[in-house]
Amino acid sequence: MKFISWNIDSLNAALTSNSARALLTKDVLNSIKEHNADVIALQETKLPSDGPSKKHLEIFKDMFPDYEIVWNSSVEPARKGYAGTMFLYKKSLEPTVTYPVIGAPSTMDYEGRIITLEFDDFFLTQVYTPNAGDGLNRLEERQIWDIKYADYLASLDKEKYVIATGDFNVAHREIDLAHPNSNRNSAGFTDEERQGFTNLLSKGFTDTFRYIHGDVTGVYTWWAQRARTSKINNSGWRIDYWLVSNRIADKVIKSEMIDSGPRQDHTPILLEIDL
Questions:
Q1: What is the CA radius of gyration of the chain?
Q2: How much is the pLDDT for 227?
Q3: Are β-strands 122-128 and 205-207 bridged in parallel, bridged antiparallel, or unpaired?
Q4: Domains in the chain, ordered, with CATH?
Q5: Is the dihedral angle over the CA atoms 229, 235, 239, 241 positive or is it negative?
Q6: What is the pLDDT of residues 73-85, one digit of tens each?
């Protein structure tokens, strides 16, 4: 099976705007379409609480006619038009869809951050992990999230194989970002967040990119938009992942990035696995 995950950073902008950035985003969506994946996971959709508009759905159905669409949006008391996730899956598939609540702190459970698809033999779940925030103002809450989320994945793993993806908002190792020394106290590379990801893996999960590619360096999934030359200079971070239950790691065929051209921010990631 073939799966793709991407933090799209605003679905509305991607589908309805004609700005230069929106056109670049549409180009990436077209690249994703060409891969003909079984399932596509999207994070940071930033949709209203009632989900995509009629216009959004019409555009999507025209672009991806063979897919069903499910979504999880931020709802009160969380911020409107914030975070959010979405799955597109082939109509030939018939998963059970759930929108887990994990007992996260503050409004995190209301921010549309997790969707899980249950198939006969495995779970496919995606996450948009909360950012620790400017000045690390959300770091303590993020640490609680990491514990709760790891426990959630472990509970799934007791029932069936797990395939988990998304924007985990952490560069796990020094080789997962271009400039580790100058980012020791930056959101996404604090000791606490890195330890949270280590703890998650220790519960029985494999980082498939490292499993396939070993300690290769200079391969990232995100380049800051604020720095105009970040992508040109490859000053990136690897913060988007495909994880699988340890016992199916040997079934992974590919785990790699999809080229997003000149568009900065996140690039899509692809997993092929023989289940």
A1: 17
A2: 84
A3: unpaired
A4: 2-273 (3.60.10.10)
A5: positive
A6: 999 999 999 999 9
Q: Give the whole-angstrom CA distance, residue 114 versus residue 123.
A: 13
67, 82, 110, 128: the active-site residue? 128
Contact 28, 269 (CB under 8 A): no
Percent of the chain with pLDDT over 90: 96
Instruction: Say whether the peptide bond before residue 77 is cis (omega within 30 degrees of 0).
Output: yes
Q: Is 128 a catalytic residue?
A: yes
Contacts of residue 258, defined as CB under 8 A and 6 or more positions apart, other chains included, come to 4, 6, 28, 31, 32, 35, 267, 268, 269, 270
Q: What is the pLDDT of residue 228?
A: 85
Q: Helix count (H) and strand count (E) of the chain?
A: 6, 14
Please name the amino acid found at residue 117: L
Residue 100, C-beta contacts closer than 8 angstroms, at least 6 positions apart: 114, 116, 125, 152
d(C-alpha 8, C-alpha 41), whole Å: 10
Tell me the C-alpha to C-alpha distance, in Å, between residue 202 and each of 15, 69, 127, 207.
39, 32, 18, 11
Assign 27 a pLDDT band (cuts: 50, 70, 90).
Answer: very high
Q: Exactly one of 167, 176, 240, 265 is catalytic; which is it?
A: 167
The pLDDT mean for the chain works out to: 96
99 assigned to active site:
no
CA torsion 20-23-29-31 (nearest 10°) is -100
Q: Which two tokens stand for residue 17?
A: 């705007």
pLDDT in tens, 36-89: 999 999 999 999 999 999 999 999 999 999 999 999 999 999 999 999 999 999
- Judged by DSSP in three states, 250 sits in helix
Q: What whole-number distance in Å separates Cα of residue 114 and Cα of residue 272?
A: 21
